[in-house]
Write a structure and sequence with these properties.
By secondary structure, the protein is of the alpha+beta class. Helix content is 27%, strand content 31%. The chain is built from eight helices and 18 strands. The strands form five sheets. The protein has a six-stranded mixed beta sheet with strand order 7-2-1-11-18-17, with helices on one face. 47% of the residues are buried.
Protein backbone atom coordinates (compact mmCIF):
# COMPACT_ATOMS: atom_id res chain seq x y z
CA UNK A 1 0.00 0.00 0.00
CA UNK A 2 1.41 3.37 -1.03
CA UNK A 3 1.19 6.54 1.07
CA UNK A 4 -0.42 9.79 -0.08
CA UNK A 5 2.63 11.91 -0.96
CA UNK A 6 2.59 15.71 -1.27
CA UNK A 7 3.92 16.92 -4.61
CA UNK A 8 4.89 20.50 -5.52
CA UNK A 9 4.06 21.72 -9.03
CA UNK A 10 5.99 24.83 -10.06
CA UNK A 11 4.08 26.63 -12.80
CA UNK A 12 0.34 26.74 -13.49
CA UNK A 13 0.42 26.74 -17.29
CA UNK A 14 -0.93 23.84 -19.31
CA UNK A 15 1.93 21.46 -18.44
CA UNK A 16 1.67 22.15 -14.71
CA UNK A 17 -2.12 22.00 -14.73
CA UNK A 18 -2.17 18.68 -16.60
CA UNK A 19 0.42 17.18 -14.24
CA UNK A 20 -1.40 18.45 -11.16
CA UNK A 21 -4.77 17.06 -12.25
CA UNK A 22 -3.33 13.61 -13.07
CA UNK A 23 -1.52 13.38 -9.72
CA UNK A 24 -4.57 14.59 -7.81
CA UNK A 25 -6.82 12.10 -9.57
CA UNK A 26 -4.36 9.35 -8.59
CA UNK A 27 -4.78 10.36 -4.95
CA UNK A 28 -1.69 12.45 -4.23
CA UNK A 29 -1.81 15.82 -2.49
CA UNK A 30 -0.60 18.52 -4.87
CA UNK A 31 0.22 22.17 -4.32
CA UNK A 32 0.78 24.48 -7.27
CA UNK A 33 2.93 27.63 -7.26
CA UNK A 34 2.87 30.28 -9.97
CA UNK A 35 4.31 33.77 -10.24
CA UNK A 36 1.31 35.05 -12.22
CA UNK A 37 -1.90 36.59 -10.95
CA UNK A 38 -3.91 33.99 -12.85
CA UNK A 39 -3.26 30.45 -14.04
CA UNK A 40 -2.67 29.43 -17.65
CA UNK A 41 0.83 30.69 -18.40
CA UNK A 42 0.96 31.70 -22.07
CA UNK A 43 -2.70 30.71 -22.37
CA UNK A 44 -3.37 34.17 -21.05
CA UNK A 45 -6.07 36.83 -21.17
CA UNK A 46 -5.55 40.53 -20.44
CA UNK A 47 -8.47 42.45 -18.93
CA UNK A 48 -8.89 46.23 -19.15
CA UNK A 49 -12.24 47.42 -17.89
CA UNK A 50 -14.92 45.62 -19.90
CA UNK A 51 -12.39 44.64 -22.58
CA UNK A 52 -10.38 41.44 -22.76
CA UNK A 53 -7.63 40.21 -25.07
CA UNK A 54 -6.16 36.72 -25.48
CA UNK A 55 -2.66 38.16 -25.80
CA UNK A 56 -0.79 34.84 -25.62
CA UNK A 57 -1.77 31.57 -27.28
CA UNK A 58 -4.64 32.19 -29.69
CA UNK A 59 -6.02 28.68 -30.06
CA UNK A 60 -5.39 24.97 -29.52
CA UNK A 61 -5.30 21.97 -31.84
CA UNK A 62 -5.23 18.23 -31.19
CA UNK A 63 -2.93 15.87 -33.07
CA UNK A 64 -3.02 12.95 -30.62
CA UNK A 65 -5.67 10.95 -28.79
CA UNK A 66 -5.01 12.24 -25.27
CA UNK A 67 -5.49 15.92 -26.05
CA UNK A 68 -8.35 15.21 -28.46
CA UNK A 69 -10.18 13.45 -25.61
CA UNK A 70 -9.45 16.38 -23.33
CA UNK A 71 -10.83 18.86 -25.88
CA UNK A 72 -13.95 16.75 -26.38
CA UNK A 73 -14.58 16.72 -22.63
CA UNK A 74 -14.01 20.46 -22.39
CA UNK A 75 -16.37 21.10 -25.30
CA UNK A 76 -19.07 18.96 -23.71
CA UNK A 77 -18.81 21.03 -20.53
CA UNK A 78 -18.56 24.43 -22.25
CA UNK A 79 -14.88 25.06 -21.42
CA UNK A 80 -13.78 25.26 -25.08
CA UNK A 81 -15.42 25.81 -28.46
CA UNK A 82 -14.31 25.67 -32.12
CA UNK A 83 -13.10 28.91 -33.72
CA UNK A 84 -11.78 29.97 -37.13
CA UNK A 85 -12.02 26.50 -38.68
CA UNK A 86 -9.20 24.02 -39.37
CA UNK A 87 -9.58 22.21 -36.03
CA UNK A 88 -8.88 25.29 -33.90
CA UNK A 89 -10.29 25.52 -30.39
CA UNK A 90 -10.41 28.38 -27.91
CA UNK A 91 -11.20 28.59 -24.22
CA UNK A 92 -14.53 30.07 -23.07
CA UNK A 93 -14.86 32.75 -21.83
CA UNK A 94 -11.09 33.19 -22.17
CA UNK A 95 -7.92 31.24 -22.89
CA UNK A 96 -7.26 30.69 -19.18
CA UNK A 97 -10.42 28.59 -18.86
CA UNK A 98 -8.90 25.15 -19.65
CA UNK A 99 -6.11 25.57 -17.09
CA UNK A 100 -8.58 26.84 -14.48
CA UNK A 101 -10.70 23.75 -15.10
CA UNK A 102 -7.77 21.37 -14.62
CA UNK A 103 -6.82 23.13 -11.38
CA UNK A 104 -10.35 23.37 -9.99
CA UNK A 105 -10.38 22.36 -6.34
CA UNK A 106 -6.59 22.21 -6.04
CA UNK A 107 -4.40 24.48 -3.92
CA UNK A 108 -2.77 27.16 -6.08
CA UNK A 109 -0.43 29.82 -4.67
CA UNK A 110 -0.64 32.70 -7.17
CA UNK A 111 1.78 35.65 -7.35
CA UNK A 112 4.38 33.39 -5.73
CA UNK A 113 7.84 33.17 -7.30
CA UNK A 114 9.85 30.15 -6.14
CA UNK A 115 13.52 31.16 -6.08
CA UNK A 116 15.16 28.09 -4.56
CA UNK A 117 14.47 24.41 -3.97
CA UNK A 118 16.47 22.31 -1.55
CA UNK A 119 16.66 18.72 -0.45
CA UNK A 120 16.33 17.96 3.27
CA UNK A 121 16.83 14.26 3.82
CA UNK A 122 14.18 12.51 1.73
CA UNK A 123 12.02 15.62 1.36
CA UNK A 124 11.98 18.81 -0.68
CA UNK A 125 11.45 22.36 0.54
CA UNK A 126 10.80 25.53 -1.45
CA UNK A 127 11.68 29.17 -0.79
CA UNK A 128 9.88 32.06 -2.46
CA UNK A 129 11.06 35.57 -3.28
CA UNK A 130 9.79 36.88 0.07
CA UNK A 131 11.74 34.25 2.00
CA UNK A 132 8.74 32.07 2.91
CA UNK A 133 9.35 28.33 3.19
CA UNK A 134 7.08 25.57 1.89
CA UNK A 135 7.30 21.84 2.42
CA UNK A 136 7.98 19.08 2.93
CA UNK A 137 7.24 17.56 -0.49
CA UNK A 138 8.02 14.09 -1.74
CA UNK A 139 8.56 15.25 -5.33
CA UNK A 140 8.82 18.42 -7.40
CA UNK A 141 7.60 19.02 -10.96
CA UNK A 142 9.02 22.14 -12.62
CA UNK A 143 6.91 23.30 -15.56
CA UNK A 144 8.40 26.74 -16.33
CA UNK A 145 9.87 27.61 -19.73
CA UNK A 146 13.21 25.82 -20.00
CA UNK A 147 15.49 28.86 -19.39
CA UNK A 148 13.61 29.66 -16.19
CA UNK A 149 13.82 26.02 -15.08
CA UNK A 150 17.58 26.01 -15.74
CA UNK A 151 17.99 29.22 -13.72
CA UNK A 152 16.04 27.85 -10.74
CA UNK A 153 17.99 24.60 -10.76
CA UNK A 154 21.31 26.44 -10.98
CA UNK A 155 20.32 28.75 -8.12
CA UNK A 156 19.55 25.63 -6.12
CA UNK A 157 22.81 23.84 -7.00
CA UNK A 158 20.97 21.27 -9.09
CA UNK A 159 20.62 20.24 -12.73
CA UNK A 160 18.58 18.00 -15.01
CA UNK A 161 20.06 16.72 -18.29
CA UNK A 162 19.69 18.61 -21.57
CA UNK A 163 17.16 21.23 -20.47
CA UNK A 164 19.51 24.03 -21.53
CA UNK A 165 19.31 22.76 -25.13
CA UNK A 166 15.68 23.88 -25.48
CA UNK A 167 15.39 27.25 -27.22
CA UNK A 168 12.61 29.82 -27.54
CA UNK A 169 11.64 32.71 -29.78
CA UNK A 170 10.32 35.87 -28.12
CA UNK A 171 7.14 37.65 -29.21
CA UNK A 172 5.79 41.16 -28.85
CA UNK A 173 1.99 41.06 -28.63
CA UNK A 174 -0.11 44.12 -29.49
CA UNK A 175 -3.67 44.56 -28.21
CA UNK A 176 -5.95 47.00 -30.03
CA UNK A 177 -9.58 48.00 -29.46
CA UNK A 178 -10.78 49.23 -32.86
CA UNK A 179 -13.94 50.83 -34.27
CA UNK A 180 -14.35 48.43 -37.19
CA UNK A 181 -13.54 44.76 -37.64
CA UNK A 182 -11.26 43.59 -40.48
CA UNK A 183 -12.67 41.27 -43.11
CA UNK A 184 -10.70 38.24 -41.91
CA UNK A 185 -10.80 36.89 -38.36
CA UNK A 186 -7.35 35.27 -38.55
CA UNK A 187 -4.33 36.19 -40.68
CA UNK A 188 -0.89 34.58 -40.39
CA UNK A 189 1.35 36.39 -42.88
CA UNK A 190 4.63 35.47 -41.11
CA UNK A 191 6.74 38.05 -42.90
CA UNK A 192 8.15 41.44 -42.00
CA UNK A 193 6.96 42.56 -38.58
CA UNK A 194 3.61 40.74 -38.45
CA UNK A 195 3.28 37.05 -37.68
CA UNK A 196 -0.42 36.96 -36.80
CA UNK A 197 -3.48 39.21 -36.66
CA UNK A 198 -6.53 37.79 -34.87
CA UNK A 199 -9.95 39.33 -34.43
CA UNK A 200 -9.95 38.38 -30.77
CA UNK A 201 -13.50 39.60 -30.23
CA UNK A 202 -14.82 37.10 -32.81
CA UNK A 203 -14.19 34.23 -30.39
CA UNK A 204 -17.35 32.88 -28.73
CA UNK A 205 -18.22 34.14 -25.26
CA UNK A 206 -16.26 37.39 -25.56
CA UNK A 207 -17.49 40.88 -24.62
CA UNK A 208 -18.99 43.17 -27.26
CA UNK A 209 -16.78 45.44 -29.37
CA UNK A 210 -13.97 44.87 -31.86
CA UNK A 211 -10.56 43.87 -30.55
CA UNK A 212 -7.43 42.72 -32.35
CA UNK A 213 -4.43 40.79 -31.11
CA UNK A 214 -1.31 41.24 -33.24
CA UNK A 215 1.77 39.06 -32.78
CA UNK A 216 5.13 40.16 -34.16
CA UNK A 217 7.36 37.66 -35.93
CA UNK A 218 10.24 36.08 -33.96
CA UNK A 219 12.93 37.96 -35.89
CA UNK A 220 11.22 41.33 -35.44
CA UNK A 221 10.61 40.60 -31.76
CA UNK A 222 14.27 39.71 -31.20
CA UNK A 223 15.45 42.88 -32.92
CA UNK A 224 13.12 45.08 -30.85
CA UNK A 225 13.03 43.02 -27.66
CA UNK A 226 14.32 45.71 -25.29
CA UNK A 227 12.58 48.72 -26.83
CA UNK A 228 9.96 50.70 -24.83
CA UNK A 229 6.36 49.55 -25.07
CA UNK A 230 5.30 52.89 -26.53
CA UNK A 231 7.67 52.40 -29.47
CA UNK A 232 6.43 48.82 -29.97
CA UNK A 233 2.79 49.93 -29.98
CA UNK A 234 3.52 52.58 -32.62
CA UNK A 235 5.59 50.31 -34.87
CA UNK A 236 3.29 47.30 -34.75
CA UNK A 237 0.16 49.41 -35.23
CA UNK A 238 1.64 50.93 -38.39
CA UNK A 239 2.66 47.47 -39.63
CA UNK A 240 -0.83 46.08 -38.92
CA UNK A 241 -2.45 48.92 -40.85
CA UNK A 242 -0.14 48.23 -43.79
CA UNK A 243 -0.84 44.50 -43.66
CA UNK A 244 -4.63 44.92 -43.43
CA UNK A 245 -4.62 47.53 -46.17
CA UNK A 246 -7.17 49.68 -44.38
CA UNK A 247 -7.00 52.48 -41.80
CA UNK A 248 -7.54 51.58 -38.16
CA UNK A 249 -9.11 53.82 -35.53
CA UNK A 250 -8.42 52.57 -32.04
CA UNK A 251 -9.43 53.55 -28.53
CA UNK A 252 -7.02 51.26 -26.67
CA UNK A 253 -3.51 50.05 -27.50
CA UNK A 254 -1.12 48.09 -25.31
CA UNK A 255 1.85 45.79 -25.86
CA UNK A 256 3.06 42.77 -23.91
CA UNK A 257 6.46 41.13 -24.26
CA UNK A 258 6.68 37.36 -24.14
CA UNK A 259 10.36 36.63 -23.67
CA UNK A 260 9.76 32.87 -24.00
CA UNK A 261 6.87 32.72 -26.45
CA UNK A 262 7.35 29.84 -28.86
CA UNK A 263 9.62 26.80 -28.76
CA UNK A 264 12.14 26.78 -31.61
CA UNK A 265 14.26 23.86 -30.46
CA UNK A 266 12.53 21.08 -28.48
CA UNK A 267 14.25 18.18 -26.72
CA UNK A 268 12.20 15.56 -28.56
CA UNK A 269 11.29 13.62 -25.40
CA UNK A 270 8.19 13.81 -23.20
CA UNK A 271 9.83 15.09 -20.00
CA UNK A 272 12.93 14.98 -17.83
CA UNK A 273 12.80 13.10 -14.54
CA UNK A 274 15.40 12.01 -11.97
CA UNK A 275 13.91 9.12 -10.00
CA UNK A 276 16.72 9.26 -7.44
CA UNK A 277 15.85 12.83 -6.53
CA UNK A 278 12.09 12.69 -7.26
CA UNK A 279 12.67 15.82 -9.35
CA UNK A 280 11.42 16.46 -12.87
CA UNK A 281 10.63 19.08 -15.47
CA UNK A 282 8.07 19.33 -18.27
CA UNK A 283 6.72 21.82 -20.78
CA UNK A 284 6.17 22.46 -24.47
CA UNK A 285 9.97 22.73 -24.74
CA UNK A 286 10.08 18.94 -24.41
CA UNK A 287 7.89 18.10 -27.43
CA UNK A 288 7.22 21.19 -29.54
CA UNK A 289 5.51 24.58 -29.89
CA UNK A 290 1.91 23.61 -29.18
CA UNK A 291 -0.50 23.76 -26.27
CA UNK A 292 -1.00 20.04 -26.81
CA UNK A 293 2.74 19.45 -26.38
CA UNK A 294 2.67 21.17 -22.98
CA UNK A 295 -0.36 19.11 -21.95
CA UNK A 296 1.20 15.81 -23.02
CA UNK A 297 4.53 16.65 -21.40
CA UNK A 298 2.82 17.44 -18.11
CA UNK A 299 0.97 14.12 -18.25
CA UNK A 300 4.23 12.28 -18.99
CA UNK A 301 5.93 13.84 -15.97
CA UNK A 302 2.96 12.97 -13.75
CA UNK A 303 3.17 9.35 -14.92
CA UNK A 304 6.90 9.27 -14.15
CA UNK A 305 6.22 10.58 -10.64
CA UNK A 306 3.42 8.03 -10.15
CA UNK A 307 5.71 5.21 -11.29
CA UNK A 308 8.19 6.42 -8.68
CA UNK A 309 5.92 7.20 -5.72
CA UNK A 310 3.13 4.76 -6.47
CA UNK A 311 -0.62 5.30 -6.33
CA UNK A 312 -2.18 5.74 -2.88
CA UNK A 313 -4.78 3.19 -1.92
Amino acid sequence: MSQRHPVAILGAGMAGAAAARRLAEAGHAVRIFDKGRDVGGRMATRHSGAMQFDHGAQFMRAHGAAFAARLNDWERRGIVTPWAGAGRWVGVPDMNAPARDLLLGLTVARSTTITRIRRNGASWHLTDGAGADYGPFAAIAITFPAPQAVALLAQSGLALPDIERATYAPCWSLMLAVEQAPAEILMKPQDGAIGLIALDSSKPGRPEGFRLTVHATPDWSRTHLEEPREAIVSALTQSAVARLGTPLRWSYAEAHRWRYAQVEGALGKPCQYDSGLHLGAAGDWCLGPRVEAAHDSGLALAEAILADLGTPS
